[in-house]
TrEMBL record:
Keywords: ATP-binding, Nucleotide-binding, Transport. InterPro entries: AAA+_ATPase, ABC_transporter-like_ATP-bd, ABC_transporter-like_CS, ABC_transporter_ATP-bind, P-loop_NTPase. This is ABC transporter ATP-binding protein. One of its GO terms (molecular function) is ATP binding. The lineage of its organism: Bacteria, Bacillati, Actinomycetota, Actinomycetes, Mycobacteriales. The keyword ATP-binding applies. Residues 21-253 form the ABC transporter domain.
Amino acid sequence: MTAIQSHVDADGADLTMTEGLRFDSVSKEYGHGKRTMQALDDVTITVPDGSFTTLLGPSGCGKSTLLRMAAGLEQPTAGTVSVGGESPAALARSGRLGVSFQDASLLPWRSVERNVALPLERRRDKSHTAKRIAELLDLVGLEQFAGARPYELSGGMQQRVSIARALAADPDLLLLDEPFGALDEFTRLRLNLELQRIWEGKRFTTLLVTHSITEAVILSTQIVVLSPRPGRIAETIDVDLPWPRTAETMDTPEFNGHAKYLRDLLLGLHR
C-alpha cells in the first residue's frame, strides 16, 4: 500500500504533511465460534492531516465498520485506531469529532439553527454560538431556512444541515458515511461540489465512505479501495486532479482515467 505523504494545491502550497488518522493492522470479527464472521483483515491506512480520504468498495467490505471505529463507536478485534496519536473516544469526548451519516438524523422538533447548535450546547461560553451558527448556515447556503423544521426541507437540504451540525465544533476529524447515497444523481453531484468548496475552505481531515466512483474521484486526495469481505486493502490511489474541481473536471481525460482504473479494479476484485 502506498500512503500519501503530501499534496499540493494550484498555488504550490503543501496541504498535508502529518498523520491525522491511522488504522494500524486492524481486524474485526463478529459473532463467536462457528458463527464468527470476519469483516476486516489486517487493514492499515494512513489518513494524512488535512486530506480528504475516501473508502471505496463493494457492499459488506467493512467500509462503514472502519468509519465507526474512527468515531469510537466500535472497537477492532485486533490492531489499533488513533487520531493524531490519541484514541477516537478521547477526540469525541473533547468535541473535536464531526460525523454525518446517510440518514441526516435531525431532531424533528428543532429548527434548522437549533439542530446545528446541538454540538455547541455543552460549551460553557455560549457568547459566540449565534455567530457560529449563522456562519455555518451561510456556508451551506441555508441562512434563509434557519427557523424551518426538518420536514419543511428537501433531502439534500437536510443533508446540508447534518454536515453543518458536524462542522459546528470545528472538528479535527470529519467522518461521512454515505451522506448523499439516498439522493438523486443531480442533487448528489451538486452537494459533492458544495462539500468540496467547504473542505477547501477549512482543510479538516475527512474520511468518506461511498459506493460511487464519481463521488470518490471528484472529492478525494486519496482513495482506499477495499476487497470483498473480509475487507483488505486492495490499493491506495493518489488522486492528483487540480483544485478546485468542477462539473467540467468530469469531462477531462485525467478524471476519466481515474474512474476507469477504479471501475476495472473493482470489477477485477469480483472475478
